[in-house]
């Protein structure tokens, strides 16, 4: 049996793949033994994106359906669903809210991005109903609830550290997991070149649709300037159309990133409005708590869905981040959850990396066990929230409003929910 080219190959250099590479490099005798693959999904697998739609993070790499006790014969790769093509990280227009736990993790990696906007208070409300709750950093023992960064800035900070750490980075367009056997995994790219690794991590941005829910919502992303900005405040407003978030924008203290979730046709119409008309529509939905809102930049539309793998591990392949579960962006949990996946996987693989000739079965099983509670609780919360307030059923919506009011009044109820959204379950 020949030694694989790399102990671990990480397929997809988004924020979760980069953070994982950095954490694994700490445990590797030689960081160059970790391969981080950057590139695009295989050509021909991607569906053309609809006009005006910004492609969401996407993967076309299906799991290799080989159980841990797989026979030596390489399993066939199943037919892949057509998915929209992912944007290059440098061009990704998302603005991301990171919680305190993610901040601590990224700082420990030296990858806290330049230019962030702090969140000290989160205002949660429901359009047309009674009830709102305030979550403040003073309620918890943290200097801030979180911070907002541009996806591209976070990615650049992580890549700087990846390069300094001596991790091997390769651009392999069209890379895919081609096969696996008892000794390792084969990766192949669009040119037909292949390489072998002991463990392959899928961090390509979207996973198998073992569990899938279409929300009938798209997110309109916009940037607005507020006449009456509130320093360090973020807003999550539940409307019948879907949640509407305004996050403090790292560009300037009076600027907010808007994530407006609504029906696909409405999203297209909002994206097509001129800036003045969009500002008026936003003011109507959000209210005047920040004064007049002026739309600044082009808008982008992302389709929203839940997609999750039941099994994170197949033989020597394992999924993290959006490849493991892609969530609705309500409450800004996807990246935070993905970073916790990465931290736990690095921890689980640490001792195996010391002797990578052996089978990683126990290390990967430990990862699966450790991630179960956090990923299903976070997926469940973010799945429930956008739907509970958008039923059109008055009793349910009243219940949602009362729940918000209850959360505002009842510190014992509010604390666990906020703490989970701030830090996630600690394994
Ligand atoms: C509108 C919106 C708002 C959001 N807001 C927040 C928020 O406020 N807070 C939060 O925590 N989360 C948020 N999220 C979720 C967050 O963006 C994702 O959870 C996060 O980006 C996942 O990171 P990742 O590295 O797993 O995947 P991605 O960011 O998708 O990165 C995957 C990378 O892999 C690359 N790739 C794909 N296929 C291949 C291949 N074959 N070979 C090599 N590379 C490949 C892709 O090009 C991409 O660069 C939001 C999502 C959306 C849609």
UniProtKB/TrEMBL annotation:
Residue ranges of domain FAD-binding in the record: 232-372
Oxidoreductase is among the record's keywords: yes
Superkingdom of origin organism: Bacteria
GO-annotated molecular function: 2-octaprenyl-6-methoxyphenol hydroxylase activity; FAD binding
InterPro entries in alphabetical order: FAD-bd, FAD/NAD-bd_sf, Ubi_Hdrlase_CS, UbiH/COQ6, UbiH/COQ6_monooxygenase
Cofactor(s) demanded: FAD
Signal sequence annotation: none
UniProt keywords, alphabetically: FAD, Flavoprotein, Monooxygenase, Oxidoreductase
Pfam families per UniProt: FAD_binding_3
Pathway terms, separated by semicolons: Cofactor biosynthesis; ubiquinone biosynthesis
Family: Belongs to the UbiH/COQ6 family.
UniProt protein name: Monooxygenase
Native species: Achromobacter aloeverae
Lineage of producing organism: Bacteria, Pseudomonadati, Pseudomonadota, Betaproteobacteria, Burkholderiales
């Amino acid at each position: 049996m020949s030694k694989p080219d790399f102990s671990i190959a990480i397929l997809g250099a988004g924020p979760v793949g980069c953070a994982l590479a950095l954490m694994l490099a700490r445990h590797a005798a030689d960081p160059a033994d970790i391969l981080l693959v950057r590139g695009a999904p295989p050509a021909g697998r991607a569906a053309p994106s609809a006009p005006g739609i910004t492609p969401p993070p996407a993967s076309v790499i299906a799991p290799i359906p080989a159980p841990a006790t797989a026979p030596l014969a390489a399993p066939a790769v199943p037919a892949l669903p057509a998915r929209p093509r992912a944007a290059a990280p440098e061009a990704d227009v998302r603005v991301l809210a990171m919680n305190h736990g993610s901040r601590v993790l990224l700082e420990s990696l030296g990858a806290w991005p330049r230019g962030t906007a702090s969140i000290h208070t989160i205002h949660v409300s429901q359009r047309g109903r009674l009830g709102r709750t305030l979550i403040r950093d003073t309620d918890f023992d943290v200097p801030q609830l979180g911070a907002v960064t541009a996806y591209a800035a976070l990615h650049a900070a992580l890549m700087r550290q990846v390069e300094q750490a001596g991790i091997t980075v390769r651009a392999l367009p069209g890379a895919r997991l081609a096969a696996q056997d008892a000794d390792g995994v084969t990766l192949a790219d669009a040119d037909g070149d292949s390489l072998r690794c002991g463990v392959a991590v899928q961090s390509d941005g979207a996973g198998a649709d073992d569990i899938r829910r279409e929300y009938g919502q798209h997110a309109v992303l916009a940037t607005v300037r507020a006449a009456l900005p509130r320093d360090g405040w973020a807003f999550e407003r539940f409307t019948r159309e879907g949640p509407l978030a305004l996050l403090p924008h790292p560009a300037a203290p009076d600027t907010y990133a808007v994530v407006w979730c609504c029906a696909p046709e409405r999203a297209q119409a909002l994206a097509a409005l001129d800036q003045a008309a969009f500002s008026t529509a936003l003011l109507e939905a959000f209210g005047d708590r920040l004064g007049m809102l002026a739309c600044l930049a082009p808008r982008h539309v992302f389709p929203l869905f839940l997609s999750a793998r039941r099994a994170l591990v197949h033989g020597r392949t394992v999924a993290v981040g959006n490849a493991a579960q892609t969530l609705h962006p309500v409450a800004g949990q996807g990246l935070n959850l993905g970073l916790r996946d990465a931290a736990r996987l690095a921890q689980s693989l640490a001792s195996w990396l010391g002797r990578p000739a052996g089978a990683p079965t126990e290390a990967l099983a430990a990862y699966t066990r450790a991630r179960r509670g956090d990923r299903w609780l976070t997926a469940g919360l973010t799945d429930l929230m956008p739907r509970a307030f958008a039923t059109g059923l008055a009793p349910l919506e009243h219940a949602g409003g009362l729940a918000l009011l209850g959360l505002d009044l009842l510190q014992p109820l509010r604390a666990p929910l906020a703490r989970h959204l701030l830090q996630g379950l600690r394994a």
